[in-house]
């Protein structure tokens, strides 16, 4: 039943108890509640004076969803307002400095930074949160003699995944072993029925590197071989079952998209695409990525013949299943607002990022039902994505890749000694653009200079980004128009080699010159 905004006074309403209206309103979504507010003064007052209903409306306005209903609605509403006000104004403080350990392995997920100590342990630092009144906490987990090549984690599930490489000499064991531990204790994870997952290595490859992603019940590992085809394996880590095993030189990287889909970047000469694979429906046997059946290919713009792909990667932070069972998180960004940045680096030193909200990818799922196997770029990309030049518009490091969280992307501006924060949350952006307040607009085809130290320092980018064919990056002119807003925060950190990363409540500046992490807490 649709709600129509009909103005009426309370006397024309049926004489139902107020409590009955509240029961009805509590089952409505934000859009319906906003429509009800326009029906009559009684509804308007009733909704505006009920904290739980106001919280529902403000969650939607900020592009968030509720997570921990154990907290009183008043507390969650207060935290939501403080959290969004801090990010909108970049009103935070430099709260901490964390030394960079010599182990050369690190991970950032949620609000936890983990590093290999270099001497047989992992050191975890829970970053502070002003909004959630969380103090910094540090602990370590001994590796008990394991020689790990990499690790992944999900603090919301207390899950730590350690990769132990195959042994080919003494006591040979030619399989990768994935140890499923608790982050907090270093003990075997209680929800893992098989504490060690295994994957055979065909031939010795001591230069093998890995990418680990965790989303809910699933863990995915990509194997980057130095002289063979790449591999992608997805397990259900709780029951120890292998769900997907793909191989192919074309595989770039992957990210989880839903509880049963991964999205894979693929590059084959000038042909660039995103391959969405249903890993539950697909065979768990070894399969060439070109032979996958339960999939949908989303074409990217064709590369110019004079350009050569050096890397084509995709990420998402956090995973779509986050925050799982973590009750310390009262609310979080709506999963449809999560960014999937695709980074294209060419041998000719072009470096661009294509920012794709999850909702843009999910909007293509009707093609699965229609039997379509491939969607051309003009049919899905121009209006639902935004391309930015990472060399001219944002200083982005391919190494310190955790530069997005939810709908936000951060970059360090070396010239201005400031952090630029780009927010692609469409719900918030539409609300601000429709507020009638004066706005500043930037040209996305030029270097953006978000103003600092102003009362309203938000810059909006709504014009198209244009990459002309004369750039010799793509074969044809490429236009993208997903709106975003940008703000900047000065750092005064001086000279050095800086990169920026972000988490739910923090911006992390990596200073590789002084080997430290500076934490800006919001």
UniProtKB/TrEMBL annotation:
Provide an example Pfam family for this protein.
F-box-like
**Domain F-box intervals:** 10-58
InterPro entries registered for this protein in UniProt: F-box-like_dom_sf, F-box_dom
Q: Domain of life of the organism in this record? A: Eukaryota
Name of the protein described by the UniProt record? F-box domain-containing protein
Origin organism of this chain? Armillaria luteobubalina
């Amino acid at each position: 039943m649709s709600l129509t905004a009909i103005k009426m006074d309370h006397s024309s309403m049926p004489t139902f108890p107020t409590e009955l209206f509240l029961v009805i309103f509590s089952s409505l979504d934000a859009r319906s509640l906003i429509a009800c507010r326009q029906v009559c003064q009684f509804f308007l007052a009733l909704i505006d004076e009920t904290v739980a209903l106001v919280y529902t409306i403000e969650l939607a306005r900020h592009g968030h969803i509720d997570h921990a209903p154990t907290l009183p609605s008043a507390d969650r509403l207060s935290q939501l307002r403080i959290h969004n006000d801090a990010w909108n104004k970049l009103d935070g403080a430099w709260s901490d400095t964390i030394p960079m350990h010599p182990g050369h392995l690190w991970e950032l997920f949620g609000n936890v930074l983990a590093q290999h100590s270099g001497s047989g342990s992992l050191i975890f630092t829970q970053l502070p949160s002003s909004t959630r009144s969380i103090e910094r906490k540090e602990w370590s987990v001994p590796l008990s003699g394991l020689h790990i090549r990499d690790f992944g984690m999900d603090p919301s599930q207390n899950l730590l995944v350690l990769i132990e490489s195959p042994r080919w000499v003494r006591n040979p064991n030619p399989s990768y072993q994935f140890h499923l531990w608790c982050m907090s204790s270093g003990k075997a994870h209680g929800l893992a029925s098989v504490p060690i997952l295994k994957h055979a290595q065909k031939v010795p490859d001591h230069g093998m590197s890995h990418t680990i992603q965790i989303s809910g019940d699933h863990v995915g590992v990509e194997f980057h071989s130095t002289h063979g085809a790449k591999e992608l394996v997805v397990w259900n880590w709780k029951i120890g079952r292998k769900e997907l095993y793909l191989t192919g030189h074309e595989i770039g990287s992957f990210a989880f998209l839903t509880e049963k889909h991964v999205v894979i970047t693929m590059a084959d000469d000038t042909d660039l695409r995103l391959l969405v694979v249903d890993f539950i429906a697909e065979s768990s046997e070894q399969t060439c990525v070109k032979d996958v059946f339960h999939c949908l290919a989303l074409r990217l713009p064709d590369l110019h013949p004079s350009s050569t792909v050096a890397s084509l990667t995709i990420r998402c932070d956090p995973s779509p299943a986050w925050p799982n069972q973590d009750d310390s998180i009262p609310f979080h960004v709506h999963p449809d607002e999560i960014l999937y940045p695709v980074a294209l680096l060419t041998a000719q030193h072009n470096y661009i990022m294509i920012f794709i909200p999850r909702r843009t990818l999910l909007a293509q799922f009707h093609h699965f039902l229609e039997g379509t196997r491939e969607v051309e770029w003009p049919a899905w990309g121009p209006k639902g994505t935004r391309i930015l030049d990472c060399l001219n518009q944002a200083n982005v490091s391919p190494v310190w890749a955790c530069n997005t969280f939810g709908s936000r992307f951060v970059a360090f501006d070396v010239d201005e000694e400031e952090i630029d924060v780009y927010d692609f949350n469409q719900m918030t952006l539409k609300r601000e653009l429709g507020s009638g307040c004066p706005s500043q607009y930037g040209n996305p085809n030029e270097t953006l200079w978000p103003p600092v130290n102003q009362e309203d320092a938000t810059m909006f980018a709504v014009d198209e980004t244009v990459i002309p064919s004369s750039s010799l990056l793509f074969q044809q002119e490429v236009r993208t128009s997903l709106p975003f807003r940008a703000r900047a925060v000065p750092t005064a950190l001086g000279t050095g080699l800086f990169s920026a990363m972000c988490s739910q409540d923090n911006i992390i500046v990596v200073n590789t010159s002084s080997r430290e992490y500076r934490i800006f807490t919001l």
